[in-house]
């Protein structure tokens, strides 16, 4: 965890009261906004910057649950189902009040007098009694267009009866179809049914006269038996693949996806390259820059963009010194030197404490350093002892232009590659190299080395990937060559075609 | 209907749930599911049958008297009490009713005695196996309307109920019961004839195999009821003498068999296990390869006090369901197909378009499907048979739901508002006769 403000004050030895107390933020004037209709209170509370609702706890018993209305008796009631023709009367239990409501509602006037003998006629489940609308043919129609050598009138009638009974569920119809021991497949049945339908439709209204709806139905009825048989054969083949085939197929799919992806990437990269090679073409007019003032603004603009670019590029890693004109400041080493000059016992502690703080090096000693007297820079500036490089190294002293407030681990500040692939794969490579993931002694030197190492690993990974890709491509081309030079040539030309076409629109712009 | 007021949470007891929400409309129907092992009966709309009576009955045959109804022993207690000369019989054969007088009595016993309900007041839904012939269906219709005087009645295939109970309109239903294991493809609640199949590799077969296996081992199969006390022992060679009760007569062999079935059933429940993989069961269990050594033993105590640890031999009888050639007791005649092969044959009979769907919706129910790891085995067998398409076995996790799936589906059906137009009414029966069943319930 990073330290809080008070931690820092502690470390610096500043009296907690010295700082002026934070001004409490001005109380916002609470405006009671009107809640728009259609939004529940809870939802609305989540939307705005409202204070959390305050729960008022009262010390009393819970309210009695409020049931709606009084307890209504239930009555066993006979009812008729209009979906039945025989008038079977069954009994079910109905709540009295709902009975009154419905009969009072006047759905069926004559129920009033009879008391609660029967329910209103519209039994709610009767509406599920639906059946499909099927085409029917007359004798004349049959004789005119439906005669078939293979199908007798009786068999056709039987088929249509079955279809009506099973609501066009072909699987069931084919299962139940039994006519004089004939062996009919589902395709036979379907072909007959659809041909009958089409013929009858055509006879009733010639194709040219059909309305759009009829026409659509007419063409939907077109049934290609051979195609269906073939399709089912393929479906069946699909079902009985061996495990090896299944595996092979999955492998092929994965491979295809990979090839597709890399191809896509290739195209993208190529496009990017083209974009880079194309010099930017001016689109606007240059009239604005013709005067001397215009030129000055242009120069200013270019300078600004330049500066922005530079700034971005110089977000230097923390390990490196920032680009500033001042040479390594003297203030910090001076303070350290002062501490070193003080009494041996204290100085030892101080000298560790100081660099520790200066570094943001938070170990166990940091707590000790908090309590240790911290030499203040200004006071001791006069009696500074200049340390040599070797001494600085010995005390693990370093110079910083600007210190980040708070305490933190140095390892947290390391500048490691951020790419996912690095995060995922670097542990394995580290293990390969016999380097522990976590630095056991993260001094600034080791950290710097570690960063360099990480960058190299990232580079290594990149190179490996590139190599893999290139190898893959060579493999593909080799196989293509093996499969026939002709085809490889063609695919190569396709590739260049694609790249050309991807390039063209850019040019036009 | 009444508009139900807007309420959050649980409805107060005075408010009726919106009907169309669950589509239920209860007409206090009864549901009867007669199986070879047990006959189950209860009120439609409930989730388990109120009563479950063994279908076996006891009878003391009297050569002089033709009518023996007074002497029928029906129910768990009567058939398990020792009565001189009492024989145990079963009115069902091949999963369908053979002895109508007795079956009628058992059904009447369930409804009038166990449920205390009046037959003529409730619509009655009865389940039947898919292979029930027309004659039997007409006979059932006759009994329900003539003897029971029911106001309305319907006969559904148990496979359809089982697929409904697992909330599937289309499924390949595998029912592993007592006498039969059956496979039935169901499409939109309609069972298909082609593709349905059955085999006797089920609970009874398993019981008989185990009985044979035990006697081969030299175990004394004296049932609890005939023993005065037991002394535990583990060495068969040094078995203490049996201390049997003296009834003053010898109970009938069928009665003793029934009593043996009881502890064999317990063995099935606790010790038997299905080998979870296809084709890897060791051919010779006396000469086990090294990689089979780690099989966990399970102990079982027989009624006479004999304690034994069962290792690979507890897999043997269940294995015969899938691979009949390894049965402890060699099967005479043609070797039947194993259960998995039967399912495969059934699927191969179906239209190519629905096969993948059926494989994805295999519903496994019935008492024998409770055999430990049987679904795992089934899954493995089917996956090896069909490596391409997705194979998915649906089996209720709750034991009662699996045992009483057929009943539960019937209960759902008979309490469904849209079902009430299907009932065959007494009036329709009077008009058309018993043949109405063929027209209305195909
Ligand atoms: N836990 C269990 N383990 C193994 N077998 C069991 C278990 N529970 C029940 N069984 C067996 O299941 C069989 C009963 O199954 P079920 O009740 O489904 O048959 P049924 O419907 O009466 O008969 P059928 O459907 O064949 O006419 C019996 O043989 C019983 O031994
Ligand atoms: Mg059953």
UniProtKB/TrEMBL annotation, chain A:
GO terms for cellular component: NuA4 histone acetyltransferase complex; Swr1 complex. The keyword Ribonucleoprotein does not apply. Keywords: Chromatin regulator, Nucleus, Transcription, Transcription regulation. Pfam families: SANT_DAMP1_like (PF16282). Residues 1-33, 308-383, 478-509 are annotated as: Disordered. Component of the SWR1 complex which mediates the ATP-dependent exchange of histone H2A for the H2A variant HZT1 leading to transcriptional regulation of selected genes by chromatin remodeling. Component of the NuA4 histone acetyltransferase complex which is involved in transcriptional activation of selected genes principally by acetylation of nucleosomal histone H4 and H2A. The NuA4 complex is also involved in DNA repair. PANTHER family: DNA METHYLTRANSFERASE 1-ASSOCIATED PROTEIN 1 (PTHR12855:SF10), DNA METHYLTRANSFERASE 1-ASSOCIATED PROTEIN 1 FAMILY MEMBER (PTHR12855). This is SWR1-complex protein 4. The lineage of its organism: Eukaryota, Fungi, Dikarya, Ascomycota, Pezizomycotina.
Automatic annotation (TrEMBL), chain B:
It comes from the Eukaryota. Pfam families: Actin (PF00022). Coiled coil: none annotated. InterPro entries: Actin, Actin_CS, ATPase_NBD. Transmembrane segments: none annotated. CDD domains: ASKHA_NBD_Arp4_ACTL6-like. Belongs to the actin family. This is NuA4 histone acetyltransferase subunit.
């Amino acid at each position: 965890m990073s330290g809080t403000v008070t931690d820092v004050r502690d470390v610096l030895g500043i009296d907690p009261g010295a700082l002026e107390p934070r001004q409490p933020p001005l109380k916002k004037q609470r405006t009671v906004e009107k809640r728009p209709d259609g939004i529940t209170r809870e939802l609305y509370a989540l939307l705005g910057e409202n204070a959390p609702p305050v729960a008022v706890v009262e010390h009393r018993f819970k309210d009695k649950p409020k049931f709606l209305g009084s307890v209504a008796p239930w009555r066993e009631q006979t009812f008729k189902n209009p979906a039945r023709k025989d008038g079977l009367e069954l009994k079910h239990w109905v709540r009295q009040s709902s009975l009154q409501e419905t009969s009072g509602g006047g759905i069926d006037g004559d129920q009033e007098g009879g008391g609660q003998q029967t329910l209103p006629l519209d039994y709610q489940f009767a509406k599920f009694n639906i059946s499909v609308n099927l085409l029917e043919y007359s004798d004349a129609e049959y004789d005119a267009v439906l005669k078939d050598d293979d199908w007798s009138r009786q068999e056709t009638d039987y088929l249509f009866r079955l279809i009506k009974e099973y609501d066009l569920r072909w699987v069931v119809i084919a299962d139940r179809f039994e006519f004089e021991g004939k062996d009919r497949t589902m395709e036979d049945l379907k072909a007959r049914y659809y041909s009958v339908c089409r013929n009858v439709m055509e006879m009733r209204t010639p194709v040219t006269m059909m309305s759009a709806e009829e026409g659509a139905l007419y063409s939907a009825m077109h049934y290609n038996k051979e195609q269906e048989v073939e399709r089912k054969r393929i479906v069946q083949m699909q079902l009985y693949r061996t495990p090896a085939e299944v595996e092979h197929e999955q492998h092929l799919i994965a491979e295809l996806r990979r090839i597709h992806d890399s191809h896509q990437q290739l195209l993208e990269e190529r496009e990017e390259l083209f974009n880079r090679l194309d010099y930017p073409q001016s689109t606007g007019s240059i009239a604005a820059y013709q005067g001397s003032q215009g030129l000055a603004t242009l120069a200013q603009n270019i300078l600004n963009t330049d500066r922005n670019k530079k700034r971005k590029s110089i977000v230097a890693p923390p390990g490196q010194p920032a680009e500033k004109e001042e040479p390594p400041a003297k203030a910090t080493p001076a303070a350290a030197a002062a501490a070193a000059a003080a009494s041996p016992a204290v100085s030892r502690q101080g000298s560790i404490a100081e660099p520790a703080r200066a570094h943001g090096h938070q170990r166990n000693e940091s707590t000790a350093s908090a309590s240790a007297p911290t030499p203040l820079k200004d006071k001791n500036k006069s009696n500074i002892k200049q340390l040599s490089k070797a001494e600085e190294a010995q005390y693990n002293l370093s110079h910083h232009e600007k210190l980040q407030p708070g305490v933190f681990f140095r390892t947290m500040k390391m500048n490691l590659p951020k790419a996912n692939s690095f995060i995922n794969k670097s542990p394995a490579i580290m293990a390969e190299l016999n380097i522990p993931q976590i630095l056991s002694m993260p001094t600034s030197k080791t950290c710097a080395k570690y960063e360099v190492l990480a960058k190299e690993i990232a580079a290594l990974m990149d190179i490996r990937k590139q190599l893999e890709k290139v190898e893959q491509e060579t493999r593909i081309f080799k196989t293509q060559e093996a499969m026939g030079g002709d085809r490889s040539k063609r695919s190569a030309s396709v590739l260049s075609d694609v790249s050309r076409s991807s390039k063209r629109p850019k040019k036009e712009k | 209907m009444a508009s139900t007021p807007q309420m959050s949470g649980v409805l107060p007891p005075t408010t009726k749930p919106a009907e169309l929400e669950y589509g239920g409309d209860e007409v206090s129907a009864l549901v009867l599911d007669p199986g070879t092992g047990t006959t189950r009966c209860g009120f439609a709309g409930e989730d388990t049958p109120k009563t479950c009576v063994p279908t076996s009955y006891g009878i003391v045959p009297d050569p002089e008297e033709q009518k023996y109804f007074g002497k029928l022993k029906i129910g768990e207690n009567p058939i398990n009490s020792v009565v001189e000369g009492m024989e145990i019989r079963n009115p069902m054969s091949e999963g369908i009713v053979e002895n109508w007088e007795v079956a009628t009595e058992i059904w009447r016993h369930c409804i009038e005695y166990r449920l205390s309900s009046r037959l003529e007041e409730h619509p009655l839904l009865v389940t039947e196996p898919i292979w029930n012939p027309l004659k039997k269906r007409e006979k059932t219709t006759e009994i329900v309307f003539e003897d029971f005087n029911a106001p309305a009645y319907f006969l559904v295939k148990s496979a359809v109920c089982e697929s409904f109970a697992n909330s599937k309109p289309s499924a390949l239903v595998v029912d592993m019961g007592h006498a039969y294991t059956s496979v039935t493809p169901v499409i939109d609640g309609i069972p298909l004839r082609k593709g349905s199949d059955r085999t006797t590799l089920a609970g009874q077969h398993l019981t008989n195999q185990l009985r044979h296996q035990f006697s081969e081992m030299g175990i004394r199969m004296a049932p609890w009821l005939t023993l005065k006390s037991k002394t535990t022992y583990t060495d068969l060679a040094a078995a203490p003498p049996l201390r049997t009760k003296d009834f003053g007569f010898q109970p009938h062999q069928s009665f003793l068999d029934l009593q043996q079935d009881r502890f064999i059933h317990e063995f099935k429940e606790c010790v038997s296990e299905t080998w979870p993989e296809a084709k890897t069961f060791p051919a010779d269990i006396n000469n086990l390869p090294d990689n089979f050594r780690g099989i966990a033993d399970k102990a079982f105590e027989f009624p006479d006090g004999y304690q034994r640890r069962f290792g690979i031999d507890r897999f043997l009888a269940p294995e015969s369901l899938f691979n009949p050639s390894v049965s402890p007791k060699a099967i005479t005649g043609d070797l039947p197909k194993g259960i998995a092969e039967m399912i495969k044959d059934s699927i191969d009979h179906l239209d190519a378009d629905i096969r993948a769907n059926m494989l994805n919706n295999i519903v496994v129910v019935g008492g024998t499907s409770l055999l430990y790891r049987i679904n795992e085995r089934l899954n493995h067998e089917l996956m090896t048979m069909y490596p391409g398409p997705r194979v998915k076995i649906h089996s209720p996790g709750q034991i009662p739901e699996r045992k009483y799936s057929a009943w539960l589906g019937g209960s759902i059906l008979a309490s469904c508002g849209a079902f009430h137009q299907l009932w065959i009414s007494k009036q329709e029966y009077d008009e058309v006769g018993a043949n109405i069943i063929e027209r209305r319930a195909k």
